[in-house]
Design goal:
With about 170 residues, the chain is mostly beta strands. It contains no helices and 17 strands. A four-stranded antiparallel β-sheet has the order 1-2-3-4, with no helix packed on it. β6 and β7 form a beta hairpin. The chain is globular.
Length: about 170
């Protein structure tokens, strides 16, 4: 992550590089950063009117959400060349992969208490899950990272980070 970057998504890709998706209209990008030095290796700028959000890796592709555009951008992992796109309803905040249910799926947050599941090849919605703590919805779920059968999320504009069970939605 560099100075002035508004980091929206982080991942360590299969080759062991740090992938960073950044946001802000006119300054959004996807870049690969050397884990040892923090120096950018390569990057691609998003269109000036696009606010980049969460990013994850699916096989040989990066999938990067956009905040309000309803578009998930697909990039080739090796070259960062565009490799397609998907559309979706609502906002895109965080994105991670999940294979805890037996088949791989993508998990998307949209700033609400709901996590939406998508097919990784078509981005079709395959389900949703309400995240609750002590029976109450956990609003403003942001960036997502999966560890075992849980999606770890930060809650926007707080110091709160916690796991959501991807089977029950419990925190």
């Amino acid at each position: 992550p560099g100075p002035g970057a508004f980091t929206q998504g982080l991942l360590v890709d299969d080759p062991g590089r740090l992938g960073e998706g950044t946001g802000l209209e006119g300054r959004s990008m996807l870049r690969i950063v050397d884990l040892e030095t923090g120096s950018p290796i390569e990057s691609v700028d998003l269109a000036p009117d696009v606010f980049g959000e969460g990013v994850t890796q699916v096989d040989d592709r990066f999938v990067q959400l956009t905040w309000t555009e309803g578009t998930a951008l697909v990039w080739d992992v090796a070259t960062l060349e565009p490799a397609g796109s998907f559309t979706y309803d609502g906002e895109g905040w965080g994105l991670c992969t999940d294979d805890s249910a037996g088949a791989e799926r993508l998990v998307r947050s949209d700033g609400s208490s709901t996590l939406t599941f998508h097919d990784p090849d078509t981005f079709a919605v395959t389900g949703a899950l309400d995240v609750r703590l002590d029976g109450q919805p956990v609003e403003e779920l942001n960036e997502l990272e999966r560890v075992d059968a849980a999606a770890w999320a930060n809650v926007w504009q707080t110091d709160t980070i916690g796991p959501s069970d991807l089977g029950s939605g419990g925190v």
